[in-house]
Design a protein that fits this description.
125 residues; 78% helix
């Protein structure tokens, strides 16, 4: 396990242990002011709920971030494959080009030899 995961688990365990030990205090009702209204509720439970929501949002953000990074790596891998395929195609085309040049040179030599060949002498003996 990585250090960050171990640290996160330790903090959550410490908060959980603190909550269990002080549950009677956390459940004590107090007046909570929400600017537009005032409510009597246990402040400790409200704070634990807020912490749970923030933790969940943070974990969702981490999942989104990791997924984005993995997709980026996947795109880079496919790009590398595409570049490798392109290099193979270019190498094959260069090979075909060289073979074609060789064949054109051979045909050119044959035609040159045919044109420069002395005409046969058709004298009757």
């Amino acid at each position: 396990m990585s250090l960050w995961i171990t640290l996160w688990i330790a903090v959550v365990a410490a908060v959980g242990a603190f909550s269990v030990v002080n549950w009677h205090v956390l459940m004590a009702p107090v007046a909570l002011d929400f600017i537009v209204a005032q409510v009597t509720a246990p402040l400790g439970v409200a704070m634990l709920g807020a912490m749970a929501v923030l933790t969940l949002l943070y974990l969702l953000f981490l999942v989104w971030l990791e997924t984005k990074a993995l997709l980026q790596i996947g795109r880079a891998g496919s790009r590398a494959e595409t570049e490798g395929s392109m290099r193979d195609v270019v190498a094959r085309l260069e090979h075909v080009e060289q073979a074609l040049k060789d064949e054109v040179g051979r045909v050119s030599d044959l035609l040159t030899a045919q044109v420069n060949r002395p005409e046969p002498d058709f004298k009757r003996a």
